[in-house]
Amino acid sequence: MCGDVQIADDVRILFGAVVTSDRGPVRIGTSTIVMENALIRGRKNHPADIGNHVLIGPHAHVNGATVEDFAFLATGTSIFPGARIGTRAEVRINGVVHSNSHLPPGSTVPIGWVAVGRPARSFPPNDHDGISAIQQTLDFVGTTYGVSPSDDIAEEMRQITGHCVELFGTHRADIPIRT
To answer: Are 62 and 41 in contact (CB under 8 A)?
Structure first.
């Protein structure tokens, strides 16, 4: 754990999981389980706010998103900045909830599918046109990387990597704590 992280009672964070505040707080509610090699990251303007009785599976990542009470995030799920997972919602194995998308309470994202929009709709992973049409309205590049989209991919990648170099350099001087 690193940075502005608050963990409630009876939370379990298993081996290899990373919980980090990269300029944004992380809050994990009561009796939540974060399984092996999962990542929870709080970001500037996008805290990671995890509710009570949530299960976050192995290799899942929650990046600057809200996960409400009783949600289930299966192995390998990806939750992008600004996303909201509603109470009792499920994101199944390798499911994705895109930036600024809101998965309604009680909803399910099927195995390997992509949820996008407000409210989120689920698409099979090969429906690039359907996903892209909605994703364009949700400012993925701006929300995730803090840069403006560009028609010049080299310039866009220069901005994205510059942003990431600065962001991930925040913890260069951190000192590991040994217990």
So the answer is: yes
Amino acid making up residue 107: S
**DSSP SS3 for 52:** coil
Instruction: Please give the model's pTM, rounded to 2 decimal places.
Output: 0.88
- CATH class, domain 5-138, is mainly beta
Q: Determine the pLDDT at residue 177.
A: 67
pLDDT in tens, 151-164: 888 988 888 888 87
Give the residue-averaged pLDDT of 160-169. Answer: 80
Query: Where are the extended beta strands (E) located within 58-168?
Result: 61-63, 66-67, 72-73, 78-79, 84-85, 90-91, 96-97, 102-103, 108-109, 114-117, 120-123
Distance from C-alpha of 82 to C-alpha of 132, rounded to nearest angstrom: 17
Phi and psi at residue 145, to the nearest 5°: -120, -5
Could you state, in order of their start, the residue ranges of all structural domains in the chain? 5-138, 139-172
In 10 A of CB 86, how many CB atoms? 19
Which residue type is seen at 140?
A: F
For 124, counting Cβ atoms within 10 Å of its Cβ (0-12 exposed, 13-18 middle, 19+ buried), the class is: exposed
Tell which phi-psi region holds residue 157, choosing left (phi > 0), alpha (psi between -120 and 50) or beta.
alpha
Residue 54 in tokens: 């949530």
Q: Are 116 and 101 in contact (CB under 8 A)?
A: yes
| Model pLDDT, residue 179 | 62
